[in-house]
Structure formats: C-alpha cells, structure tokens
Amino acid sequence: MNPNGSMDTFFNPRGVAVVGASTKNLGHHVVLNLVNGFQGGIYPINSNYNEIEGLTCYAAVTEIDGPVDLAIVIVPAGAVPGVLEACAAKGILHVIIESAGFSETGPEGIALQARCDTIARAAGMRLWGPNCMGLVDLPNQRFFTFMHPAIRREGLLPGRISLIVQSGMMSAIFLAELGRRGIGVAKACSIGNRTDVDECDILEYLLQDEQTDVVALYLESMPRGRRFARMARQAAKPIVLLNGGQSRAGATAAMSHTYSLAGNARLLNSVLVQAGVTMAEGIFQMMDMAHTLSMIPHMNPAGRTAILTLSGGAGILMCDALEINGIPIADLSEETRRKVGEIFPPWMPVANPIDLFPAVARNGRRVAFQGAFSGALADPGVDALVIHFVAGLEADMPDFQDLQARARKDGKVLMFWLMGRREGSRTFRDKARAAGIPVHDDALRIGQCLRAVARYQAHRQSAPGADTPPAQITAAPSLPIHQPGIWDEYDSKMLLATHHIPVVTEFLTDSSAEAAILARRIGYPVVLKGLAPGEAHKSERGLVRLNIGAPHDLDRAYTELRDKVGDRGRVLIQQQVTGDYELIAGFLRDPQFGPCVMFGLGGILAELEPDVVFELAPLDNQAAVQLIRAIRNRRLLTGFRGKPPLDEVAMADLLVRLGDIGTRCPSISQIDINPLLITKGTPVAVDATVIMEGA
Amino acid sequence: MNPNGSMDTFFNPRGVAVVGASTKNLGHHVVLNLVNGFQGGIYPINSNYNEIEGLTCYAAVTEIDGPVDLAIVIVPAGAVPGVLEACAAKGILHVIIESAGFSETGPEGIALQARCDTIARAAGMRLWGPNCMGLVDLPNQRFFTFMHPAIRREGLLPGRISLIVQSGMMSAIFLAELGRRGIGVAKACSIGNRTDVDECDILEYLLQDEQTDVVALYLESMPRGRRFARMARQAAKPIVLLNGGQSRAGATAAMSHTYSLAGNARLLNSVLVQAGVTMAEGIFQMMDMAHTLSMIPHMNPAGRTAILTLSGGAGILMCDALEINGIPIADLSEETRRKVGEIFPPWMPVANPIDLFPAVARNGRRVAFQGAFSGALADPGVDALVIHFVAGLEADMPDFQDLQARARKDGKVLMFWLMGRREGSRTFRDKARAAGIPVHDDALRIGQCLRAVARYQAHRQSAPGADTPPAQITAAPSLPIHQPGIWDEYDSKMLLATHHIPVVTEFLTDSSAEAAILARRIGYPVVLKGLAPGEAHKSERGLVRLNIGAPHDLDRAYTELRDKVGDRGRVLIQQQVTGDYELIAGFLRDPQFGPCVMFGLGGILAELEPDVVFELAPLDNQAAVQLIRAIRNRRLLTGFRGKPPLDEVAMADLLVRLGDIGTRCPSISQIDINPLLITKGTPVAVDATVIMEGA
Questions:
Q1: How far apart are CA B215 and CA B160, in angstroms?
Q2: Where are the beta strands (DSSP E) in A66-117?
Q3: Which residues of B touch A640 (CB under 8 A)?
Q4: Which residues of A touch B192 (CB under 8 A)?
Q5: Å from A320 to nearest chain B CA?
Q6: Element (H or E) spanning B551, and its range?
Q7: Most CB within 10 Å of its CB: which of A207, A445, A649, B112?
Q8: Strand positions, DSSP E, B291-427
Q9: What are the residue boundaries of the ATP-grasp domain, all occurrences included (chains A, B) (predicted)?
C-alpha cells in the first residue's frame, strides 16, 4: 500500500474519470453529482456516448487528455479488473469502486475482489470500496457518489462533523437524517467492503483535516482495531462510534473465562473507551453526541450542572435524566443562594433546579431569568447550565449570542432543553446553535450528551503525551514447561510466580503422608485439588475440597482425589485463603485488537453481570491504574463497607506483568487468573489457567 | 369523602360556574375554553361584570338560576374558602380549584388548604386541585382549564389515551407534545396539590371510561401507593407511569438493609411492575409506549420478531435495539427460509433480519416485499414484524389496511421503523397509524415499545382472577419477647423460627466450657458472635469469628468476644454454613405502599448493584413465586454453573410466612434476613434483624 499521505487525492483530485458514466441510473447520478459542484476536470467514460451532460465522453480512461488522478467506477463487477488495469496504465492511482457484486455476494465475488486487490497492489494503486457510496464533501460541494442527486434537496448543511460509514445505504440515510436534524456535515465517507482503504486510513486523514472538528463512525467490525485504538488515543479531536452488531451471538464457546468475557463487543467497547472514544447507542444518539462535542470544545470534566426552569416537574425530570447519566446536580453556594434569593419570594428557598416560576410572578420574566442566570454563572461550583424553555409560549427569544458570550467568559457550558411548537422550535434551535449552544428536546439526550462531553474532557486531561509502549520488552520469558494446550493450575501459577505475580502457597503431593506434612507447614485449614490433564472445570467435576481442618479429613480427601484423577493426574495441596472479595485478571489475543489485558470483578454475580475492562497489552503503570479505575463497581476497591482499599500499586504491577508475559511470549494465547483474591487490599492468584497455542 | 361514583360529575356536569371569570388573563381563558365546546350551562361569576363573552355574569354562585353542579375556581387563594362556602350553599358539590397559593407555598398556604378541605368535607363536596390546570376532554371538546385557548391550535388530536399529570405546567406541555407527535388524547387531568381528588380516584374513573384505552401518568409521589398498586393489578387496561424524582437522595440513613434497599423509587418501581404497570423513562418514551399499547391490544408475549429491511446496516441496528430490550430475534423456520428463499439469489441464504436488497434487485420491489412479508406472517415462530422503511425514496406507499388485515388474521403484530423526509414521513405515519400500525423513527424506541407490549401481555396472562388477600390472617403472632427497638440476631431468628422459617443451628452460651460442648454437638468448624445491645454492624466491630476449627481457638474467641460485649451482651455459637450463594429477604412498612416483602440477591456485589424486588404483603404463594422470578439475575436461581436450582416451593413459603408475620404484628416495622444462604437449593437464615416500633 502507498503511504497514507496519498489519501488526500481521494478528496482533492485534479480531475475525475467516471467509468460507467451514463445518461441514466447510477452512472448518470455520478456525473450529475460531479457537475453540480466539482471544479476540476470531469471525464465520463463509456464507449456508447460521445457526450454526457455536455462533457466529452471517452471510450477508455487511457484516452483522457487532461490531468486526472481519481476514477469513480460504477461498471458491473465483472468489468472492474479490466478498468483497474486501464487506470494503472493511465497512471490513475486512486480509484473508488462503487459497484456491488464483490465479497458481499459469496465465493465468486470474493475471488473477484481479490483479483482487483492484486492489480491495485502491483500498480501501487489505492482502492476505496468496492460496494460503497463513495464520498461527499459538503463545504466544498463535492459529491463523488451515485446517491440520487435529489439528496441535495434534503436540507443538507455544511458543517464540521465528518462521517465514516461502513454500510452503504446507511451513509445516505445518515446524511438525510442529519439534514433533518439541522446538523452540519463536513465529509461523509462510505467505505463498503474495505478491500484496501479502511476506517483507519480515513480516520487518520480526517484527524488532520482542517474542516473536521469531530469524526463520527458507523462500523459493524473493526479489523484493524488495534491501530484504530492507538490513533484514537492520540487524537486531538473527539471520535464518536456507533458499533452495529453488538448484540449478535459472540465467538463460539470459548475455553477460558477471559476469552468468553471479551464477548463480541465488550472488549471493543472497553478498549475504545480507554482510548477516549465516545461510544453511542443508536443512530440519533450518535448524531447528537457528535454535534454536542463539536459545539462544546471545553468543559470542566466534573460537569456539575445547574438547571433553570419555569416548571417544577421539568426540573425534576431533568435531575433524573442527569443523574441516570452520572452528571452531578450542582450544589449552589451560600453566596449564590443569597444573591438569587433576592428575586424570589421569602417562602421559596433557592435550590437547584432553580424553579423560576415564583420569581417570575414577583419580578417579571426578564429580571427573574437574568438574576438566576448571572447567579449560576458566577457560582464556582457550577460547570454547566441547562435551561428549560417552552418555545412559542413567549414571543421574545433569548439573546443567544449574549448568553453564550457571558457563559464562555466564565468558562461555563450552556444547553437548552426545548419544548413547544414545531415552527418556533426550529427557529429557536437554529439561532441557539448558531451561537454554539446545543438544543435538544429530550432530557435524557441532554444527560447523555453532557456525559459524553464530561468523559471526553476527562480523557483529554488524563491522556499521556505520547503513546510509548513500555521499553522493557526485549526477550521472550523463560517458560517452566513447554507443552501446548491448556496448562493445569499448578503449571499456570508457576509461570506467573516466575514472573513475580503473587500466587497462593501450594505444593504438589504424591502421598497422603506427605500431604499431612505439607498441611502442617501451610497451616490448617487447607484445600486439596485434583488436577486432571485438560480439565478446566475442577469444581463442577468434584475435584476441589475446601476447608479441610484436620489430618483425617485430609487423608480421606487425598485418597478420593487421587482415585479420581488417576495416574495421569496430580494432587495439589494449597493454603486456604479467605479474601475480602474476588477479582479476575487475564490476558488474551483478540483477532481485532491483538494482545490485551483484562481486569474485573470475580465471583458468581460477576459472571451473571460481567464487570470487566480491557486494555491493549503491553500497558504501562499509568494505563494499568486507569484500567483498575475503569470498572463499573470501582467503589468496591476504594474501601467499601469498611474493608481496606485495594493496593493499587500492587494491582497495577500485576497487570503490567501479565501484559508483558503475554506480549513477550507469542505462544501464549490466553491467561486466566480466577479468582484473584483480595485480602487486606493485597491481590493473590488462587487459581489460574494458561492456554498455549497448539492445543 | 363521597363515594367515587360521583367523579363522573367532574367530567360530565350539567352546568359549570366559573368563579373568577374575567375578560382578561386566566379568568378569561377559562370562559373562552368553555364557550368553545361545552354544551351545558356556563355561568361566569364576577361582581364586576354584567356579561362575559355574551354570557350573563353573576355576582355569586348562589345567584345562578340554572342547573349547575361543577365550579371552576380561579380567584386569589385567600378568597377560595368563601367561594367553597357559597358553592356548598348552592349545592355545587364538585369544585376544581385552579388557583395557586396553597400548600406549595409554605406554612400559610398549608393552613389555607386545610381550611378548604374542612369546608369541603363538612359539605360532602369533592375538591379537585388546588394549584392545577383542571381537565381537558378532547373527544367531547371540553376544556375545563385556564390553559391558553391557543393550545387548540397546537394540533391536539382526540384519541384513546388518557393522562393524569401531577405537575401543572407539564400537563399543558404533554398535550402540546402529544399533538406534535400525532398522538391522540381522550382526557387529560392535571391534579395539582391533591387535597382530595388524587390519581387513584381518577384512575378508577378512567379504568371504567369507555373513551379511554390506556392511562398514562406523570407523578412525583404516590401517597396512596398501596391502593394504586391494587387497582393496577385488577385493571383491564394498560397503565403507563413516568415517575419523576427517582434520582433524588432517598430516605435518610436507614437502620436496616431492607429499608435502605427500598430507596426512593426501587420499591415503587418493583411493586408497580409486579402489578402490571409499564414504567417509562422520560416523557417521550411514556408517550410512545402508551400510544403503542393503545394500538396493539394483543401479542404473543414471547415477542419473537422478524425484521424486513432494504439495508443490512439497518437490520443489524434493529437487532441491537431489540436485544437490548430483551426482545428475541425470531428464528425463521426451515419452511419459511425455503419459501422466502425462492425470491432471493442462490448465494444469499435467507436469515432474520430479512435483507430484501438482493431480492429486490432480482424480482422488483413488490414481489420481494410481498414474498418476504407473506413468509414471515406464515411462520409460527414469528410474533411480530418490524419493517424498516425510508419515506420519500419510493413513491408508492404500502397499503397499510391490507397489511394490517393480513397480520391480524395471522395474529401477528406490525411496526414500522421509518426514516426519511419529514413531509413524506408525516403522511406515512398518519396513514399507518390510521390502520393501527405503530410507526417510530428510532430503533431503540421500537425495542422499548415492543418490550412494553410483551410485558403487559405476559402480565395479562399471569394475573390472577381476583385480588384476594390470603385468608389465614387472623391473629397477631406470639412474640418470644416484647422489647422495642433493634432485636439482636438471636432474638430475631427465634421469632422467625417460631413461625417456621428455617434458621441456622445456634445456641447462646455463657462459658467457654459450655461453648466447647455445644461446638461438639454442632460440629466444627463453628462461628462465634458477640451480640451487643443495639449493635447492627457486628462484622465491622470485630464481633464475628468465622471458621473456628478447634477447641483452643474456640476458647480464645469466646474470651475475647465476652470481653468485647460486656455484661449486657451475649455470646452466640453457630453452625458454620457455606452456601452456594447468598440471598436476602425482608419485610418493611413503606409510607406509600404499606407492608411489603423484599427478596433479592445478597453479598457484597449486590450491595453495589442491588438486585431486589418488592411486593405488597401479605402475599400468596403465586405472588411469592412471581416475586422470586422477578429479579434481574434470575438465571442464578435456575441451576447456574452446575449448582442445584433454588427450591422455589421452600423459598416462596418463606416469603409468604415473612409477609404474614410482618402484616399480623403491627409493632414490627422491619425484618431483615441477611444473608439467607442457599445450600443445595435450600434457604436458611444465617443472620437476621427485627426492628420493633418504639426504638
């Protein structure tokens, strides 16, 4: 593939050849779309015509007599390889294949796509598509696409959000829906089958694009997830992702818990959230979050919000919507309450939400609103103001430019929760947005958007300056043994212990008498386990005896387990550890994201409602600490119910080592530490499984 | 209060007096609203006018010379008691007080409202309000409200959903927003301060109202929650509730876990869900759920859904939206796949979602759609069809009446996911709805609405015929002791054991020697606990010694605990039980819902993310079984990870007994069984706390 710098030619070609140009259907659409806006040369290619839309039509790209560096191909799939060869001969090294009929149609299409790929690689050509709708650049009025030219009548607005969309028809739908919602777009890129150019190539380009402030994506898979995550972490612009297909049945039955917890979307979500990506749920949430992020470049990540309303009920519903989304309701200062209180009747103590109704009745709308607004802006404990407004009930609209200027001066964020008549609402919305103030009609959406802004700001403040992988990775670690497949618990923990991960005290034992000696050394009560080759479910198979308190119980347990595991098995005696709670840690190689470390809660309830997070491995100490703090139930780790807080330094060290072991030894496919018991804040691996390739 | 039958006069009065009628402001609005639609007598009352809007104006209600049985009062608050006395003198026994300035304004207002109440009670008068917007009846064009007459221009539609709204301004906002969304309304009732008429009175009326199919409510509290829940359980119509204020800081620090788990909204939510109420999150979800429930009277509760779309991406997003909401994606039968497959190209196996694009390319839109539609309708494994549609891209609209007739014949439910141009969408939506087919533009909303329908249908099928409280409640149970306040664990479990709730084997002990004898009888390992009067946090205070395996450990533990608890304390020796998992059960008296039983998961993670459900006590066996199955993580109880399933009969029996004990003994304010350990499926109370009134 060519260096990525050449991506610019797709967006800014000197001339464009339209291979498959026509006077009807899609081939006509492409020409019409180019004629309506593109300033460079346009060269229709079709041997059946002399001209199309007043442009000279050529029989082949090789006959073009002007500067041309991009071809849009819309001929039947079978003819595409010939077209690519002609393009290569002409020196056209950027091609958007918009035709369908490739890998999406089965084996023959896959072979056809591979042929295209081979031709392109040999020529040093970049391929965009196939099976895509191409690209649209609204500020520059470039429509390199077969979308119906009527799409321009859908109210499309130039703006500063760029889109990358995997699914073909969705890209047209997204454009139309954004127009309907009055949201402006910079570039919209439909990427189709991604035989060469993919979301990473385009993301890299858009992150440098001066017309793009936010990148929003719709993807159903992310084959170069690792690259995507690394780019996102370094990005200086917000990235919003709608990941379709989260719910589908995930990978087939997996052997380790770490692997099954990764699921179809959990790992992707977790890694990308760590990298600062805003994950959206649903099309409209994606659009509204992207739009809000484009309008709010800065906010204190605390996001403490004051609410101004004329309706007590609306204030209550807004509180609910904010708290569901983890946005705190600001505590107004004594000073603010005193100052704002001057416009309220004496029986009405000022609180947040600020219910303006009694103040309006006393002082009129202007005085009441301005008093409350100024008071909330001046309060150092307020980061954002949400103003509830009913359009159409009052004739006069706020002076948005003035409100926004005052809010910006104080470093505060404004948002409107707008209800009321449709016509009035539209004008209100457009004027407010022109001043950079987001407007939504749904309280929950305001909560979701404020959460997106708060998280993105927190990410910006915490992101390290550079993405330097830990330097200490030099040689593969020495493995105590070398067999492929599932290692038993003893061998697995030996590998961990060799690399300074704390494990429970344990010994293999060959006789009941020896077990008794070891038990005295470990101290009763002890645990006895039978290790059978390849057996991953000891408890379910009755191979675990907990709470052995005396020698005669030990003797009986030894005899039984020895019988069960047989000659090829082993018996393990172990200190019985009672932790304050159970965690789980792991390592795996993900097909999209490569080596990753997992961390989360253990125990039976965590199996029912997993609370695990993932990060690319290797990871440094800072990333490990962030990972630890990223679980949903982080409260458990900070001294919950009088238990000592987790030793974060020890835990982070364990995760860094786990990532190093896995990364440095390519034959390790998975490591599972489950449970990782926490006693007085200190982690110890009580059971573990290593899975080596070649099983 | 009068019998509820008299509620009808509020909605169907022969004549209405408007006390505070005027030619301007709110007093004018009320008259204008009446003139525009009400067919009965209208009597403006204001001594300053001779006539208003062409109607004779009276100085007082007592002077009215026609039949009048309802007064709408909009005079200043201080004048209201006098008005009520005049109404009583005239025999007007139904009064809507729309004036503000009562209990919502502080102590003086509370006193004023109490005076009104006293006058009304003495006269046998029903009061609606004060501080409310009255009522609107759209099918009959009755506006008994001071809302601005321009509200009629907001596109209000008569329909079959009735509203009960606690907050004043929200009722006007709801009406306008429903109009904007093209959703029809029957009656809208703004209930204000509820000094007499409350949501229960109106709900009872609307459940009998022939013009109402669904009742939707916005409430911020539910003082007669118990009555509401009982009515909801018996209701033959869907009830949708948006409960504002869920997020607020709940009750102050509570002494028992059961009480704190009840929280502000968890108990309300749980009890009402058990009673078949649809709980909405946010205003628009409430509206859309109510509307969908009004259009879909029947569905198989399994809700297995087939998806028809022209966009693969849309199909994927719809799957996500359905699965998030627990709606299963239908498995198409072999027969369906074969039949529908005939219209598809051979390389495209038919699956659900049915992506019609390749079939359209092959056979045209009509054949493709009709083939897939017929196939899905005929499939016995399909209960609902969601059809994705882009308005404006095709000229011809579906024949909604025909689609709906065919779907109904096969007992299937149809919904449209509609995207596209605004104008086209509006026509499409209105036509589809006229045929009884719900249309939404948000995939997630379709998932939420289908879930609401599926749950309501499941409730209808499971609801018992009559709400008969268990008959065995006769006498208060005998209490082993009679002190008020917090009982210690031993006394608490003695109460439970007396009433046949299984508790762990345990004895009080007065000496180390006795403890040793008891330990031999119980069997090592044992647990020793120090019981100090009023101490609810034994573990945190170091008063619990687990896992005592030998006599010398027992001796040391006894000495230490005896020292700690002192003369007034007691020492308890207990069998050490290791369960498969921990549950929790409890009883409490809720201020809104009265005696309730709680059931849920125990353990530390369940404290972080509570999974508990509540039901009114006493409860019968069937309700107890439903309660057990209502927890989020019900999978844990059915044989998770090879553990034996919970003995539902024993568990239900325990909950019934718990409810009986609490209900029959009014001095019990709370009972907490925590943990309730489950061993081989059988529950046993390991620790418990009883709290008696008078603490």
A1: 9
A2: 70-73, 94-97
A3: 604, 607-608
A4: none
A5: 5
A6: helix B551-565
A7: A445
A8: 305-309, 354-355, 384-391, 413-420
A9: 493-693
**Under 8 Å between Cβ of A511 and A550:** no
Is B284 part of the contact surface with chain A (CB cutoff 8 Å)? yes
Q: Using CB atoms, which residue from A247, A321, A641 is nearest to B324?
A: A247
Cα of A666 to nearest chain B Cα, Å? 32
Locate the domains of chain A by residue range: 4-244, 297-462, 505-575
Distances (CA, A) of B88 to A86, B62, B67, B95, B116: 97, 9, 14, 10, 12
Task: Provide, as residue numbers in chain A, all residues whose Cβ is less than 8 Å from the Cβ of B108.
Answer: 347
Q: Which tens digit of pLDDT belongs to each residue from B295-346? A: 999 999 999 999 999 888 899 899 999 999 999 999 999 999 999 999 988 7
φ, ψ of residue B251 in degrees (nearest 5): -60, 155
Q: Name the closest residue on chain B to residue A243, using Cα atoms.
A: B317
Return the CATH fold of A297-462. Answer: Rossmann fold (3.40.50)
Instruction: Quote the pLDDT of residue B597.
Output: 97
> Measured between CB atoms, does B474 come within 8 Å of chain A?
no
Is residue A584 predicted with pLDDT exceeding 80? yes
Which A-chain residues 115-144 have CB contacts (< 8 A) with chain B? none
What 3-state class would DSSP assign to B279?
A: strand
Is pLDDT at B347 greater than 90 in this prediction? no
pLDDT, tens digit, 9 for 90 and up, residues A471-522: 454 455 666 667 888 899 999 999 999 999 999 999 999 999 999 999 999 9
The number of C-alpha atoms within 13 Å of B491 and in the hemisphere containing its C-beta is: 20
B-chain residues within 8 Å CB-CB of A443? 282-283
Bridge partners of B509? B571
* B372 pLDDT higher than 70: yes
Domain at B298-462: CATH architecture: 3-Layer(aba) Sandwich (3.40)
Q: Which of A604, A612, A632, A633 to mutate to test the interface with B (most CBs of B within 10 A)?
A: A604
B598 Cβ contact list (under 8 Å, min separation 6): B258, B261, B262, B267, B584, B585, B586, B587, B588, B612, B613, B614
Contact (CB<8Å) B633/A166: no
Q: Which of A292, A300, A293 is nearest to A411 (CA)?
A: A300
Q: Given this model, what pLDDT does residue B289 score?
A: 98
This model of the complex carries an ipTM of: 0.91
The H-or-E segment that residue B350 falls in is: none
Q: Look at A180 and B601 and tell me if their CB atoms are within 8 Å.
A: no
Rg (CA), chain B: 31
The CATH topology of domain B505-575 is: Dna Ligase; domain 1 (3.30.1490)
Task: Give which of B496, B123, B523 is closest to A547, Cα–Cα.
Answer: B523
What distance in Å separates the CA atoms of residue B121 and residue A356, rounded to the nearest whole number? 34
Closest partner residue to B244 (CB to CB) among A169, A316, A442 is A316
A443 touches chain B (CB under 8 A): yes
Nearest CA among A492, A500, A488 for reference residue A541: A488
Element containing residue A580 per DSSP (H, E): none
To which residue do tokens 């996001």 refer? A303
**DSSP class of B558:** H
CATH code matching the domain that covers A4-244, chosen among 3.40.50.720, 2.170.120.20, 3.90.226.10, 3.30.565.10 = 3.40.50.720
pTM, 2 dp? 0.93
pLDDT for A260: 57
CB contact under 8 A, A245 and B525: no
CA distance A561 to chain B (A): 20
- DSSP calls for A640-692: GGGPPPP-HHHHHHHHHHHHHHHHH-TTEEEEEEEEEEEETTEEEE-SEEEEE
**Lowest-confidence segment of A661-670, B458-467, B489-498 by average pLDDT:** B458-467
Which amino acid is located at B401 in the chain?
A: Q
